Structures are given as structure tokens and as C-alpha cells.
Amino acid sequence: MPGKSETIKAAVIGHPVAHSLSPLIHAHWIGQYGLHGSYEALDIAPDNLVAGVQELVDGGYTGFNVTIPHKQAIMKLCAEIDETAQAIGAVNTVKIDGAGRLYGRNTDAFGFIENIVQTAPDFDFTSGPALIFGAGGAARALAYGLKQRGVPEIRITNRTREKAEELAADFDLDVIDWDDREAAMEGVDLLVNSTALGMTGKPPLTVSLGVLPETALVCDIVYKPLMTDLLAQAQARSNPVVTGLGMLLHQARPAFEGWFGMLPEVTPGLQQKAQEAAR
Ligand code: NAP
Fold first, then answer.
1. How confident is the model at residue 279 (pLDDT cuts 50, 70, 90)?
2. Which of 20, 24, 40, 262 has its CA 20 to 30 A from that of 277?
3. How many Å from the N-terminal Cα to the C-terminal Cα in the chain?
4. How far, in Å, CA of 58 to CA of 277, rounded?
């Protein structure tokens, strides 16, 4: 662990990046644990990625988070990429070593799984099928995380079927037509929305939970609003639910650990702060 007097510089790079909650999360932990450090949001346009990252290396940064649209492009700049990030095909966390080499990781799958483990500790990943709505960047991390946890059958459905098929080929999933998304809920133990639907400013996710078992855990990784229509509908029929903000908070923990040398906790205080900022 770095000495308490050592100042550690970290950042999140993206374009746009002003909306990112990462500075709030990391600043909270720096303050909570009394560390000397900083964490900034840096807007770097795609054309400027190589030069922008070099500035971080030259500026003595310990590492940085990577958000849209750089999660794939950053991979080409990394000297090493861990197995998880390779499987997911995206890097969201980078550590810079003393020689200026970049080490890429992906903590999104950890964040997704850890959020479920902490919120619904009795949920057994191996007990039955899961159904994922969506096949975008986030869905890859979800599929990877669920596979790692031993989910016996993973169904995936997406408006653009080809994208679901690509993901299914990589992670051995069962593709369901988007039009059949309601029937696909039959017998599942876990339903997760990873589409952008239901997010503030996006169209609603129109779906009836009719055939979904009442014991199935329902997760939404959309966290704006925190209680999406999907979760509200699930809760009204007594399904246990997991909101999306926790995924964001938990994915930040291993990144912080990589830079500051300690695994921070997601406390109710941090949750509250992030929830207010996400509104
Ligand atoms: P993405 O790569 O752009 O994928 C978007 C997904 O939404 C695709 O599956 C897309 O389907 C679907 N979609 C968009 N508009 C749709 C519509 N009108 N009808 C049906 N499907 C539609 O985005 P992403 O990175 O995977 O993120 C998806 C959501 O998860 C976002 O809301 C994001 O904020 C959230 N997220 C949360 C966390 C967290 O930590 N909680 C982490 C990452 C992402 P098509 O393939 O057909 O376009």
C-alpha cells in the first residue's frame, strides 16, 4: 500500500465525461480513508486519445478509469490486458506502472455480480436460468459475470438479433427473438435489463412480467431513475429487485484498490450521496 503521505493522481477519461459519478465516488473514499490523492474527470476526444493518455503518463498519474467511447480503443495502448477484460472485449480501468506501461482491466462484471451478492445475499446463481435484455457493451460484462458464477443457462434477447447472436457465440448463450421476450421469462431465476430502455430520456421498456416466477430476482442496470418501471412492476408483484446504482459503485472498488492499495466499501452514506447526484 502506498504511504499515506504519497499523493496519488487518478482520473476518468471519456467523451463526454462531465456526467460521470466516478469523481464523486473516488473522492468520497479518498476522504473517508484519509488518503492523499485526487481524482478528476478528463474529457478526451477520440482523435486525441493517444496524446491525452500520454499526458497522464507524463503527469505521473497512477491510473484512470475509461468510459464511453474509449473502452475498446484504449486496449491498443495497453502493454497488458487481464483475462477478464480480454473476454469482455473492453477495458474500464488502467494502472500505469513506474515505466509508463499501461495495464488494462475490466471491473464491470465484478460490479454487477457484487451488487447482487450484497443486495440479495441468498440468491443462488447456480439454481436456474437467467435472461438478459440487451446485447450492448454492458451485456458482455453481465454475460461474463454470470458464466463465471455458474449460471446453468443464460438466455439473451435484443432488438437487433445479430448483436445477441455475436454475444451468444462468445459466451454460449441461448438467443431469443426480441418479440418473444415475455415468453422467455418462463422458469427464469434472474431477469436483468441491460438495454438503455427505461432510462430518463429514453423510451420505456414495455414488457409484461406475466410468466415470470414470483421468486425470480429482477435487476436493472439502468440507475437513472433508480426505481425503473421494470423494477417497480416487479416489486408490485413481490419479486425481489436489485437497482443499478450498486453496480456502478462496486465496479469502482477494485479500481480504487489498484491505485490506492485498499479495497474500499460501499457504505449507505456513499449510496445516498451517489443516489442524490444521479437524480
Ligand atoms: P450500448 O452498448 O449502447 O447498448 C444499448 C442497448 O440498449 C442495446 O442492447 C440496444 O439494442 C438497446 N436499446 C437501445 N434503444 C433501444 C430501443 N429503442 N429498443 C430496444 N432496445 C434498445 O449501451 P451499454 O453500455 O450496454 O449500456 C446500456 C445501459 O446500461 C445504459 O442505460 C447505461 O447507462 C447502463 N449501464 C449501467 C451501468 C451500471 O454500472 N449500472 C454500467 C454500464 C451501463 P440494439 O442493439 O438493438 O441497438
1. confident
2. 262
3. 35
4. 32
Burial of 106 (0-12, 13-18, 19+ CB in 10 A): buried
DSSP helix/strand/coil, 29: helix
Atom 23, ligand 1: which residue's CA is nearest?
136
Residue nearest to atom 35 of ligand 1 (CA): 222
SS3 for 158?
strand
pLDDT number for residue 278: 86
Q: Which of 4, 71, 76, 224 is catalytic?
A: 71
* Length of the chain counted residue by residue: 279
Rounded to an integer, the average pLDDT of 168-177 is 97
| Residue 198, C-beta contacts closer than 8 angstroms, at least 6 positions apart | 204, 205, 220, 222, 228, 229, 230
Percent of the chain residues past pLDDT 90, beyond the cut:
96
CA within 13 Å, CB half, 155: 22
Which of 233-259 are b and which e, b meaning 16 or more Cβ less than 10 Å from the residue's Cβ? bbeeeebbbbbbbbbbbbbbbbbbebb
